[in-house]
Write a structure and sequence with these properties.
Elements: H1 10-14, E1 25-26, E2 41-46, E3 75-82, E4 91-93, E5 97-103, E6 105-112, E7 115-121, E8 126-129, E9 135-141, E10 149-156, E11 162-164, H2 166-174, H3 180-184
Antiparallel strand pairs: 1-2, 2-3, 3-10, 4-11, 5-8, 5-10, 6-7, 6-9
Length: about 180
């Protein structure tokens, strides 16, 4: 079967361009972003629909508006900026999540069969995390002369979901962000 070709107007193609300098930083939208150790910013490039489940969150939060949001690409792309020591709580996704370090040094940690394990990634290093693996990432060191590291995150699906690990839920309860009673309801 042949692929149908289209010949878009230049304006239609410009709507598909996301220039890094024009991306909007979003520092809210996920529960853990309120924790001091989880402060980070999303610069959302290619977006997707929000998931529809209780206790599930969009991987880039519900406030990080994608520059290119009109395409159903089957995946989302966002830059993640964080200072050293900042990252995300342990969580999982219902689709493959991938990371490529753009600037700085980053640690990607996961719950493995022998306990927690991790890998340290340098610029242009890449990791693909399988479906269902509890994982987290953290900036270890920014690039020379910069305050933050920069990670490129890509996740499959048109409405992928994230769920915070039980240890992360406990941290959010401890910080007063979640209430145990409301979670049990």
């Amino acid at each position: 079967m042949a692929i149908s070709t289209v010949k878009p107007a230049s304006a239609d193609m410009e709507a598909c361009v996301a220039r890094f300098a024009d991306l909007q930083r979003c520092e809210t939208g996920l529960p853990d972003m309120q924790l001091p150790e989880c402060r980070r910013a999303f610069l959302n490039v290619l977006g997707f629909d929000q998931p529809k489940g209780d206790g599930q969150f969009s991987p880039f939060g519900d406030r990080a508006k994608a520059r290119v949001s009109h395409l159903k690409a089957g995946f989302g792309v966002s830059f993640i900026a964080a200072a050293p020591g900042k990252g995300v709580l342990m969580h999982t996704h219902d689709t493959v999540e991938t990371f490529m370090v753009m600037k700085g040094t980053w640690k990607v940690e996961w719950e493995g069969d022998q306990g927690d394990a991790h890998v340290v990634l340098q610029p242009l290093d890449f990791i693909a995390v399988p479906v269902g693996v509890q994982r987290r990432f953290e900036c270890l060191q920014p690039a020379a002369g910069e305050a933050e590291g920069l990670l490129l995150g890509m996740i499959g699906g048109n409405a992928p979901a994230a769920e915070i690990a039980p240890s992360g839920i406990e941290r959010l309860i401890e910080a007063g962000i979640f209430q145990r009673e409301k979670l049990a309801a």
